[in-house]
Amino acid sequence: MAEKNARGRPAAAEEEVREKVLNAAFLIIVEQDISFLTIDEVARRAALAKKTIYRFFSNKEAIIESMIARWTSTTEVPQPPAPTSSQQVLASLNTFFTTLAARVLSLESVVIYQFLQSDLSKKSEYLKLYRENGFDNAARLLDKWLNQVKASGLMHPLWPADSAHYLQALIITPLLRDISLGLIPPVPAFDPQPTISRVLNDFSPLMLAKPH
Known about the structure:
Elements: H1 14-31, H2 39-46, H3 50-56, H4 60-72, H5 86-104, H6 107-115, H7 123-133, H8 135-151, H9 164-180, H10 193-207
Helix pairs in contact: 1-2, 1-4, 4-7, 5-8, 5-9, 5-10, 7-8
């Protein structure tokens, strides 16, 4: 049974309140300026009482941290399955980067990326959260998989053990830059597949084990 408030009306579900707060904060960042991001303005935009917001967020910094975690985290990006051929290595990498692009090149994620370039009081903490739960997490996951594939004999023996950041820099970083500059729209309006396929195909002779 839903929790009720003092007047007998069902209280808003926690997830619904959180979603309203994060969406309101997102619109403030997009439509106005960082200086407008206050609990008062979030409450007005979300049509919520300030005391309701404070039940879930201690301050606006907690809202920002939740936005970063909600829209830029890559913890839900799955590790590719173990391949049995060179073709499957490329196919799995293609799927991985397609999933990653959908996550980190979405409108919400790009807005957070742009926001983090502002003059913020806790910028170093926000950037650490953004990196560790976003690109760094994805790189750790991919490097672990690539090293397993290398151990199976499907990767070139000279392919570096920590190449995930390099592949991200070739595939994701240029697209993030162009989306941030407004040269191309965010994913899914923009299809990253041609870029992903081109980079992987270009580097496949260096990446994959030579056929016997």
